[in-house]
Amino acid sequence: MCTKRGALIIFEGLDRIGKTTQSKLLSNYLSEECGILCERLAFPDRSTQIGSLIDNYLQRKIEFNDHTIHLLFSANRWECMDSMREKLLQGYTLIVDRYAYSGVAFSQAKGLDKKWCQSCDIGLIKPDLVLYFNRGIQSNCLSYTGDERYETKQFQEKVESQFEQFRSSSHQWKDINVINSDNTNMRDKESIQNEIRLYVKESLEKIKSNNIEELWK
Ligand code: DGP
Ligand code: NA
Ligand code: NA
Known about the structure:
Elements: E1 8-13, H1 19-33, E2 38-42, H2 49-58, H3 66-78, H4 81-89, E3 93-97, H5 100-109, H6 114-119, E4 129-134, H7 153-167, E5 173-177, H8 189-206
Parallel strand pairs: 1-3, 1-4, 2-3, 4-5
Helix pairs in contact: 2-3, 3-5, 5-7
The structure holds 2'-deoxyguanosine-5'-monophosphate and sodium ion (2 copies).
The site of one sodium ion has 3 residues, from helix 1.
């Protein structure tokens, strides 16, 4: 095979912080303006059978204990790995909304053991770039509240402090601050998108072989 593999680019961060909007903008830009093979996906992928259990859980229609739902979220990533690997090797860059970092952060916020949380995602495809959406220092101009299970201010703040642990532990982790420097407003979409495009360009240039590494090994 002589095509260079695509990049695995992850969007991470709290709920309602702009990941979906920005990942769609990026995906359109790469495919339409740069002519780069590209696909966007999101975890949880609610379209599979496991994803439908997760969807019902998030909508509070069914219950699982904390360990069980953790394993289901992880299984939902694992069931996509073969097709993701195949796509990457065909040269597709994959833009992915959430990944194993959400898995660890959300479950740790409930009090589960970190090592246990990480263990079931060991061996997933390692990202080339993780864009972590955050609000910098504590800011009140974001609302996380929604109807789904995790969408309360109190829980999101716990998750936020768990996300922080990945900052220093990974060199492909880049912070995207969504709040203006005056700390009162959201940055405009274009400025965030431009920052993301620079990181993505850098990351695409770094791919020199078809080698795919594994997460947390
Ligand atoms: P989203 O579709 O991106 O809004 O995600 C749905 C919710 O599930 C959101 O509150 C984040 C949470 N979530 C995403 N991935 C995981 C995971 O692996 N484990 C847990 N416990 N929660 C997750
Ligand atoms: Na959500
Ligand atoms: Na989302």
